[in-house]
């Protein structure tokens, strides 16, 4: 029972919103001339960018397997083109996602999926003894530096819009003093997964940057369940903000990235209710298989509208719960619901005669099955059912 409790507590403490980053496998690097060696150097730099984004590791290039792969960077390219950025020629490259994932697995590195926590950034600038909040679409150069640094690490960021609701909910002293309650209240409307407060002091030739990251939701900040990470950086605006975003990304990656290199020993199972049609089953199965923490998924039991899935992981259950919490179509049910379903566990353990409610063999094709009730699946075979540690509700229309 301790395993169930740990899993549910971990899940309920996790963020419920996330953003999909569609540019993880793309990079844009300067191309000062058309020399063949220059292009090769640019291609290597682009692959390094992508590997850092996808792995979440700044030092990924120190891995021996990765270093060797960089010598053959062209084999990972899926598309290559030439462009122009602010009057300068650039090389635009897309890399094969499957090959990148395989490479990271071979290197026993980490993998950070496209579903990533959204970070709300409260940015306050002090210049000439005046302090002001940098709002979205303000045209402030700090925002451009922030967006570029965040993009290089694959971290989705947003700045508050600065409308009437914002300016009445928060003040510069609140942000400069790092007062968590008003910051959390003002942040709630944006439903971020993390909140970053950055305070910039301009100097004649440099800037000082002090920042504070709450790596959880505003609700966790209000409950006192979110400890903050603090840091200081200095230099020109690009260098200071890049250093801050590197540290922020490192922290988030340590929470969300999955260790690759082999499945964990043993497994567990989850029960999912409201799986009523065959198409629901296929969509749910695909969702589970696509999670970066999952090694394999097998349906082991069927009863009514409830399906039990046996799960083998590439990581641990907490990482699995964190990934699952970002998917709106599947929702965790409270522990009381799990207790009410003890009969489902008991029947799984006691029944040994093959029967339709005991086990299932899933068809290998969706053809002609989209509108069929789930009960029409071939369930003539029985698989051993592992004890479930969580109950979920499937909502395909979410």
UniProtKB/TrEMBL annotation:
Signal peptide limits: 1-18
Biased composition (Polar residues): 366-379
Region feature (Disordered): 347-379
A Pfam cross-reference name: DUF2066
Keyword Signal: yes
Keywords: Signal
Protein name listed in UniProt: DUF2066 domain-containing protein
């Amino acid at each position: 029972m301790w395993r169930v409790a740990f899993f549910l507590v971990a899940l309920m403490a996790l963020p419920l919103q996330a953003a999909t980053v569609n540019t993880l496998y793309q990079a844009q690097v300067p191309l000062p001339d058309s020399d063949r060696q220059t292009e090769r150097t640019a291609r290597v730099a682009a692959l390094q960018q992508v590997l850092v984004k996808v792995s979440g590791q700044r030092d990924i290039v120190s891995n021996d397997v990765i270093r060797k792969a960089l010598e053959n960077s062209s084999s990972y390219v899926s598309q290559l083109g030439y462009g122009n950025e602010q009057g300068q020629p650039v090389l635009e490259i897309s890399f094969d996602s499957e090959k990148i994932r395989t490479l990271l697995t071979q290197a026993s590195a980490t993998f950070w999926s496209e579903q990533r926590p959204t970070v709300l950034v409260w940015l306050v600038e002090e210049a000439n003894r005046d302090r002001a909040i940098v709002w979205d679409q303000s045209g402030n150069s700090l925002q451009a530096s922030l967006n570029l640094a965040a993009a290089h690490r694959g971290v989705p960021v947003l700045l508050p819009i600065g409308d009437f609701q914002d300016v009445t909910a928060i003040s510069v002293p609140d942000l400069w003093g790092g007062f968590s309650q008003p910051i959390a209240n003002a942040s709630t409307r944006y439903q971020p997964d993390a909140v970053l407060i950055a305070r910039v002091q301009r100097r004649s030739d440099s800037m000082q940057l002090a920042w504070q990251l709450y790596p959880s939701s505003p609700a966790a900040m209000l409950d006192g369940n979110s400890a903050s990470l603090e840091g200081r950086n200095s230099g020109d605006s690009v260098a200071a903000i890049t250093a801050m975003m590197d540290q922020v990304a490192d922290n988030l990656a340590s929470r969300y990235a999955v260790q690759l290199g082999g499945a964990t020993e043993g497994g567990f199972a989850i029960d999912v209710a409201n799986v009523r049609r065959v198409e629901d089953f296929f969509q749910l199965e695909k969702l589970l298989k696509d999670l970066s923490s999952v090694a394999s998924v097998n349906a082991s039991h069927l009863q009514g509208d409830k399906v039990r899935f046996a799960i083998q992981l590439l990581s641990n259950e907490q990482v699995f719960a964190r990934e699952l919490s970002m998917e709106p179509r599947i929702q965790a049910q409270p522990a009381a619901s799990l207790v009410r379903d003890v009969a489902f566990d008991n029947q799984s353990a006691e029944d040994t005669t093959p029967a339709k409610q005991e086990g299932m063999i899933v068809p290998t094709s969706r053809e002609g099955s989209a509108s069929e009730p789930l009960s029409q699946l071939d369930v003539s075979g029985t698989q051993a059912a592992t004890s479930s540690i969580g109950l979920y509700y499937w909502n395909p229309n979410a």
